[in-house]
Recover the amino acids of this structure.
């Protein structure tokens, strides 16, 4: 035993430090070579069981595989995850880094076998198990064939994004980053594009813009990716209300789209640019872009794009008080949505039409369209959509001499917004409701509702809105104008002046 | 003996942490426990020991773990908790999940005037009628892509599913205590972390779910507000001492002529970091085996 301790002492002193790398190498040096190889291979997947070990070591028998599995399970650097095992994070990270440094044939072949293994695991799996198997297949696909694996990564990202699972996109991105050491410039660009999209989806516009600018400086990625990056950057700037930057980015996207043969994204790029120009007040430019977008969408028979173009056109006309043209455009948008069998998007267009007729004080038509919008939002269980329409309906009911319905709509809208923690819009609905109470001369209800609006604005961090409502509320508590003593003084002074004037007249007449 | 059982028997030190955990199980002084420490500091071992303690005390428990490839989001966490604690207690939640994800289900998803959700109105479940939903186990369709015929925003879906899940959980925990374990939480995605602390733990902190203790294990402590900090027990795992290493050598039945010398050697090498201590012992055992094979050969 003394020999073992002496040898052990010698080993430790030779190690120099107790870093994860040193610990790992020391242990591997002590293991039987076949088991050490198995340990190194186990750093390629994130976890393993006997079935996966068989895929990693196709030349080994079942008994050998079972033996390796049991021997590995006894090591402290191997974690127990239910029925599976995983190398400890530090050990795996070190050994996986080694595989990437070498990027050997052995690594690529092992990755290919694992890709096939997880492909076979997909059958019969559903839910989270299926997602996990897909991610693992994608991960090893990159190790075996980078372009193919990255294409699969993009597909998984899109799937997760369409299902509103941003955490799913983030997980896929983190997995691809494990390959940073060997990613080609093109793969890096594609990865960066999806990271930027994720940041934009998380409303982190600053980070999204940073990543996109870095991506645009990468000349190794294709023009198609650059076009997408410019387009995304334009959308980020639109969200930030930076119209000039948005226009510049979208123009670059347009140039590349035209150069690459009018890609399918072009009509949408033109539509976004039209929105930016409209916001900047450049009406002709906006309309010209919409006309171009409409022509292209007509050529491709892209019904949804046409519906979007006409909706944007309607809003453009509305902002210039061209009511007839606005209504015609919205109606065209509705017709295209009907052709495309898109029921739910019609709610937004009905809402716009309701607004338009409100501007024209045609309360009957306005009510008709808002009610249609409300009906669709209800069918779609879209509570926020219902809350927005109910807020608009308050004005219509009020002007149609239906005050109790206006108040009920306002209460429901505020309640929906509050339930969904949209405190700012709940505050807006409460404020409108308070004004209705005030007009109805229901002072106590108005005061209480103003108070709720202030609370909601404060909760939403909208201090200036809260302060404005505070002033409005104070005016109701203390009516505007001079205090009673000032009025008394004015009356007294006026009386004195009148008496003085009369006296002067009397004195003048007596002379 | 399974590898997990073996590791449980080799568990050393962390006496203070286990004692405090048992106290909290008894007096429920704090509903949230956060175990923090570097990778390899023994968090998962401590968690395994705590889970074992719950088994011994016959306390209902659930465990969710994050890995690089399995990264549960808010819905997966709620589904996991439900499946561990018994789907029968979460019928309202499951019905709402099905309503959002399975387009074969026709349910009334309207929000009533107090902000609660009417889930079951109009629903038709096998062997049950509407109004008796709490007594029926509803089967989850386990679909992860929301249905396309609804216009429900992700925020609304999250809030309403969470609210229903928490109501179901509160009914369960008011009858029986529950401990939830969350392991490797540093691997959780940002959205999930926000939900965990902003929704789930906020309800636990505010005692909206009675009789629950939530144990989190992670490398870094979360940045939480003052109220949550007050409701949270912080446990930071430090290095092992010489006595702990000696005890560990004993528990692993390491045969050595000079155990004190060996423990000192390991302490100097590992600086008491548990994973390095255990790994050094593995190395020593392997050295012994290699020497034995050499002398045999």
């Amino acid at each position: 035993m003394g020999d073992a301790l002496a040898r052990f002492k010698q080993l430790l002193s030779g190690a120099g430090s107790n870093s994860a790398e040193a610990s790992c190498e020391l242990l591997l040096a002590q293991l039987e070579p076949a088991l050490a190889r198995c340990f190194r291979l186990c750093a390629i997947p994130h976890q393993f069981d006997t079935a996966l070990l068989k895929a990693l070591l196709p030349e080994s028998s079942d008994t050998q595989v079972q033996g390796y599995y049991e021997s590995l399970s006894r090591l402290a650097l191997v974690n127990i995850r239910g029925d599976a095992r995983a190398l400890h994070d530090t050990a795996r990270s070190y050994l996986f880094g080694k595989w990437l440094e070498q990027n050997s044939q052995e690594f690529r072949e092992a990755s290919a076998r694992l890709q096939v293994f997880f492909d076979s695991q997909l059958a019969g799996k559903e839910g989270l198990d299926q997602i996990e198997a897909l991610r693992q297949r994608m991960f090893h696909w990159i190790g075996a064939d980078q372009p193919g694996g990255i294409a699969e990564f993009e597909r998984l990202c899109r799937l997760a994004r369409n299902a509103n699972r941003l955490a799913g996109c983030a997980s896929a991105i983190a997995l691809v980053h494990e390959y940073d050491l060997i990613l080609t410039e093109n793969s890096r660009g594609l990865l960066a594009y999806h990271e930027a999209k994720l940041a934009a989806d998380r409303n982190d516009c600053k980070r999204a813009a940073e990543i996109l600018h870095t991506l645009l400086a990468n000349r190794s990625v294709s023009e198609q990716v650059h076009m997408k990056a410019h387009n995304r950057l334009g959308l980020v700037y639109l969200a930030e209300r930076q119209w000039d930057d948005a226009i510049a980015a979208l123009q670059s996207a347009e140039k590349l789209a035209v150069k690459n043969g009018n890609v399918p994204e072009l009509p949408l790029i033109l539509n976004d640019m039209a929105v930016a120009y409209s916001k900047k007040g450049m009406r002709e430019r906006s309309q010209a872009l919409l006309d171009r977008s409409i022509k292209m969408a007509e050529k491709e028979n892209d019904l949804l794009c046409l519906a979007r173009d006409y909706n944007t056109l309607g809003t453009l006309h509305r902002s210039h008080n061209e009511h007839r043209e606005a209504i015609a455009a919205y109606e065209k948008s509705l017709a295209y949505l009907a052709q495309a069998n898109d029921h739910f998007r019609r709610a937004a267009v009905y809402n716009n039409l309701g607004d338009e007729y409100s501007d024209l004080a045609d309360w009957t038509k306005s009510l008709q369209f808002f009610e249609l919008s409300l009906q669709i939002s209800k069918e779609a269980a879209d509570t926020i959509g219902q809350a927005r329409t109910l807020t608009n309906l308050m004005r219509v009911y009020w002007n149609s001499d239906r005050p109790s319905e206006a108040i009920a709509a306002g209460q429901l809208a505020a309640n929906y917004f509050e339930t969904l923690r949209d405190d700012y819009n709940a505050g807006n609905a409460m404020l409108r409701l308070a004004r209705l109470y005030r007009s109805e001369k229901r002072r106590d209800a108005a005061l209480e509702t103003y108070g709720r609006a202030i609370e909601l604005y404060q909760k939403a961090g909208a201090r200036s809105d809260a302060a404005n409502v505070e002033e409005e509320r104070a005016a109701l508590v203390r009516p505007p104008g001079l205090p009673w003593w000032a009025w008394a003084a004015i009356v007294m002074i006026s009386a004195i002046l009148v008496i003085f004037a009369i006296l002067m007249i009397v004195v003048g007449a007596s002379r | 003996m399974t590898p997990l059982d073996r590791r449980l028997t080799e568990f050393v030190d962390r006496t203070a942490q286990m004692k405090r955990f048992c106290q909290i199980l008894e007096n429920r002084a704090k509903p949230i426990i956060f175990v923090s420490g570097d990778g390899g500091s023994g968090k998962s071992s401590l968690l395994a020991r705590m889970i074992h303690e719950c088994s011994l005390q016959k306390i209902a428990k659930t465990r969710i773990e994050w890995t690089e490839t399995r990264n549960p989001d808010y819905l997966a966490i709620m589904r996991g908790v439900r499946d561990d604690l018994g789907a029968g207690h979460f019928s309202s939640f499951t019905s709402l999940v099905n309503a959002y994800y399975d387009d074969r289900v026709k349910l009334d998803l309207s929000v009533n005037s107090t902000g609660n959700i009417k889930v079951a109105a109009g629903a038709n479940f096998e062997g049950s009628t509407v109004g008796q939903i709490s007594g029926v186990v509803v089967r989850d369709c386990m679909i992860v892509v929301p249905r396309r015929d609804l216009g429900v925003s992700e925020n609304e879906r999250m809030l309403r599913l969470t609210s229903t899940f928490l109501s179901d959980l509160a009914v369960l925990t008011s009858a029986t205590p529950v401990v939830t374990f969350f392991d490797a939480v540093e691997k959780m995605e940002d959205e999930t972390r926000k939900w965990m602390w902003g929704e789930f733990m906020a309800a636990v902190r505010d005692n909206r779910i009675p009789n629950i203790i939530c144990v989190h294990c992670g490398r870094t402590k979360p940045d939480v507000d003052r109220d949550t900090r007050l409701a949270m027990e912080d446990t930071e795992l430090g290095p092992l001492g010489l006595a702990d290493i000696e005890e560990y050598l004993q528990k692993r039945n390491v045969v050595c002529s000079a155990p004190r010398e060996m423990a000192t050697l390991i302490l100097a090498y590992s600086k008491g970091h548990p994973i390095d201590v255990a790994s050094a012992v593995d190395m020593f055992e392997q050295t012994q085996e290699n020497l034995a094979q050499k002398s045999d050969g």
